[in-house]
Write a structure and sequence with these properties.
The protein has about 325 residues and is α+β, with helices and mostly antiparallel strands. The chain has two domains: about 100 residues, Lipocalin; about 210 residues, no CATH class. The chain is built from seven helices and ten strands. The strands form three sheets. The protein has a five-stranded antiparallel sheet, with no helix packed on it. Strand 2 and strand 3 form a beta hairpin. The longest helix is centred in the middle third of the chain and has 32 residues.
């Protein structure tokens, strides 16, 4: 168990921020003047950001790691003179706001953020479970196992990043699954497809709702200067989501090129129109990773993340790939 403490002078009053972090359990507890303002646990502890208020001033505790050791940082906006109980740095993110030392855990914003974290965890486990089932079923030839791989990647990311942007990725994948089922022209799967598309719309609405709840809570990290706390801005996915979108797009494009080569090298000996074997697997890779890249790109654009040009490229390319799949379906 690691313990960290900071003493902050604000509005003529002294406040103490204490952090307890279970480096093995992933549990973290933050107290302001002895009152718990945040408590959570991470299954895979890659660090986290937690925002609250100290006497009306937005403040953030950041837990970061290099994979071996953990670093603990505190930041406040606007910068204020401070007396340090232990070395001070900076960090960012979201939890219940405070006015003075009074907790407001029952506020609408705090409740909304709590629901968001629960919803993301639920999505993550469903995706991981569904992905595992799809991979196993794919070995038996029932479905394409590549969709299972895309679901596993999405679910793993949701366990690491608890951001509203996740709902755009979820909604995009759900929408494409619905479209695919509708294109199958089978009554039962068509009904499933309609349900999935309706669910996708609701998931996008959840993104905008949770995005409003977290608005103004993001900050950019700057080095601490002297005895002053520096304002913090921006969340960790700010740079990663656009780059991941581009990476998924590149995988889809490479898979497309390999697919074209595979069907031109020679006809499949089985003569099956469903493209079994390598060609079928490559077609599944194009579909799964293009849908994932589209979701990550849209999430980046709608969230206002950095590298928006890269994200827009991913959206356009992946959108064209998926549109081409729709066209091919009707040829």
């Amino acid at each position: 168990m690691a313990n960290k403490s900071w003493t902050v002078q604000l509005n003529g009053r002294s406040h103490t921020v204490d952090l307890q972090h279970g480096t093995m359990s992933g549990e973290r507890t933050i107290r302001l003047d002895g009152t718990v303002v945040h408590r959570s646990r991470q299954l895979v502890d890659t660090g986290s950001d937690h925002a609250f208020e100290i006497d009306g001033h937005p403040a953030v505790v950041r837990i970061s790691t290099n994979g071996v050791t953990f670093n603990y940082e505190l930041g406040i906006d606007p910068p204020q003179p401070v007396a340090l109980a232990s070395p001070l740095r900076s960090g960012s993110a979201s939890t219940a706001p405070l006015t003075g030392t009074a907790r407001r855990d029952d506020s609408a914003e705090s409740a909304s953020l709590g629901r968001m974290h629960r919803d993301i965890r639920s999505w993550a486990w469903w995706l991981l479970g569904g992905g595992a089932v799809s991979i196993v079923a794919g070995q038996a030839g029932a479905v394409s196992p590549t969709w299972g791989v895309a679901m596993m990647i999405t679910g793993s990311g949701a366990l690491v990043f608890h951001e509203p942007a996740n709902f755009v990725v979820f909604g995009t994948i759900l929408a494409w699954a619905g479209i695919s089922n509708l294109l199958g022209m089978e009554p039962v799967w068509g009904v499933v497809g309609v349900i999935q598309i309706v669910g996708s719309v609701q998931t996008f609405r959840a993104f905008f709702r949770y995005r409003r709840a977290t608005e103004g809570r993001e900050a950019s990290v700057e080095p601490v200067s002297g005895n002053r706390l520096i304002p913090i801005l921006r969340s960790r996915p700010n740079r990663l989501f656009p780059l991941l979108a581009l990476a998924m797009t590149l995988v889809a494009v490479v898979a497309l090129v390999a697919f074209v080569v595979s069907i031109n090298v020679g006809p499949d000996s089985t003569g099956d129109d469903d493209l079994p074997g390598v060609a079928g697997m490559l077609a599944g890779l194009v579909e799964g990773f293009a849908a994932l890249g589209l979701g990550l790109g849209l999430a980046s654009v709608l969230s206002g993340y950095q590298y928006s040009d890269l994200a827009k490229v991913a959206v356009v390319v992946d959108g064209l790939l998926l549109f081409a799949l729709v066209v091919v379906t009707f040829i």
